[in-house]
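Let's see one such:

===
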Amino acid sequence: MSAPVLPIADAVAVLRRGGLVACPTESVWGLSCDPFDEAAVLRLLALKQRGVDKGLILVAATPAQFDGIADWEPLPPGRKAEVLASWPGPNTWIMPVTPRVPRWISGEHDGVALRVSAHPVVAALCTAFGGPLVSTSANRAGEPAARSLDSLDPALLAATDGLLAGETGARDRPSDIRDARTGTLLRG
């Protein structure tokens, strides 16, 4: 059995009910859920067979969707401008957290991974949802990420509540990840 293909409005309704949605991103197929719904995040982590301690990436349509989530104050001069200039795009920044960020998102870290997506499907979903979403590759821990819908694990896809039609972007690797405090490239 496969997950149903959903229009954006139905995908948003699924997310608001605590569901999981698969969608294409800049490089791979991803899984999304409401980051503030603990049960949804724990369901996603169980599906991926991934521990909560690692933390998750949040994706948004605009930097403003991260208001109250990212703490810009501890960053060195000029870093906020550098971060904002890299968005939208495949650039994830580990930002200092605010008290609003739950532990099931930050994991054992004092930072939260944030990206403003340039992918039209992801951006449209975040816009319609009205805020950031969890964005993690649609694969079980240790397995390769799916670059096409056909390469998604059918059992994993069947365990979601729907998917958004579309193609992944041309990027051949996941987003770069940098520490916003130091500028250090953590994954590139």
